[in-house]
Design a protein that fits this description.
Layout lengths: L8 H12 L5 H31 L1 H4 L3 H6 L14 H32 L4 H14 L3 H14 L3 H6 L5 H25 L3 H9 L4 H30 L2 H6 L25 H9 L4 H36 L1
Helix pairs in contact: 2-14, 5-9, 5-11, 5-13, 6-9, 7-9, 9-11, 10-11, 11-14, 13-14
Length: 319
């Protein structure tokens, strides 16, 4: 069957004219402006919330912010040592446990599922359940952590001391964000070009060498983006910590950031501090809660900035 030649002069001119012709795309224009409107609306809501919270907590933020950061939970809002230090310490250790447990286990699980596991019904069953677990309400994870790490008599409760400690809370939050880490890491590993892996196998590299030298460096930016999102969720979760038994009142001690013995002691965290203060009838407590929200935002931004720095570093290294 004879085929028409697209390169003859009349056809080429018609194609060029068709491409260069400016057509009226009403639907596309409406869609574009709808997206822009949604973006502006989201940014406006975010800006209003930040301004409102900052304004409410300005009396604490504009004063001695150092004293507020180093202060502790008190029963009176006019107490000069009222502050969020204990909440920051608790949130810091929760972030440490999430990074130390969820990230290695989650990234390792994702690499195994994508590169080593046999594709069969059992593998697909596991992946479907991981995705379902990512959508389970956080309070359910709180009940699970309460049963496993606090109340149940077993090796895990023996490991945590069977008490409502920072270790129990950190392990619960680590389990909560684990499905998110696995899913995002899987997507990042899946995005590695097949030709890159085939080229490495072609020069005689083993599967471990391909994983270490090709897959992990290429997928690192995507993996770090996922860990960034999971860390932000871990820091802001309050419901599981309430169920676990985080202290919402005064703590008996005021440990430092790197005091390891506090892992076996009662604890609180920034979301718990904020929730508790907003329930108080005094306006000063609500102003302190607004200031604590700003501090928590800055705390999360610092963690996110670190993750973004690492992501950009690996992107440049990947070229």
């Amino acid at each position: 069957m004879a085929l028409s030649r697209p390169t003859d002069q009349p056809t080429a001119e018609r194609v060029r004219a068709q491409i260069q012709r400016k057509r009226s795309d009403t639907t596309g224009t409406v869609f574009k402006w709808t997206l822009l409107l949604a973006l502006l609306l989201s940014l406006t809501i975010l800006a209003v919330l930040i301004v409102d919270v900052t304004t409410d907590g300005w009396s604490f933020l504009s004063g001695d912010i150092g004293a507020f950061l180093q202060g502790t939970l008190r029963s009176r809002p006019d107490d000069p040592v009222l502050g969020v230090h204990q909440g920051l310490v608790g949130s810091f250790w929760i972030a440490v446990m999430v990074a130390a447990l969820s990230f290695p286990i989650g990234i390792g699980s994702a690499i195994y599922l994508e590169e080593y596991a046999t594709r069969n019904r059992f593998t697909r069953f596991i992946e479907v359940n991981i995705r379902n677990l990512a959508g389970v309400p956080s309070v359910v994870y709180g009940l699970l952590g309460l049963y496993i790490f606090v109340e149940n008599v077993g090796f895990m409760s023996a490991f945590t001391g069977g008490r409502q400690t920072a270790l129990s809370g950190g392990l619960t939050i680590a389990i909560l964000v684990l499905p998110i880490v696995i899913i995002t890491a899987q997507e990042a590993v899946r995005a590695v070009p097949q030709a890159l892996k085939e080229g490495a196998y072609g020069v005689g590299a083993t599967r471990w060498e391909v994983t270490r030298t090709q897959i992990l460096p290429y997928a690192a930016p995507g993996i770090l983006t996922g860990t960034l999102l999971s860390m932000s969720r871990a820091i802001g979760e309050a419901a599981p910590l309430i169920v676990i038994g985080a202290v919402s009142g005064r703590l008996g001690n005021d440990p430092g950031f790197f005091a390891f013995d506090q892992l076996d002691d009662a604890f609180t965290a920034m979301p718990i501090v904020i929730t508790t203060w907003t329930r108080q009838p005094e306006d000063e407590f609500r102003q302190a809660a607004a200031a604590a929200i700003v501090v928590l935002l800055v705390f999360v931004l610092v963690l996110n900035a670190t993750a973004i720095f690492l992501r950009n570093y690996f992107e440049k290294k990947r070229g």
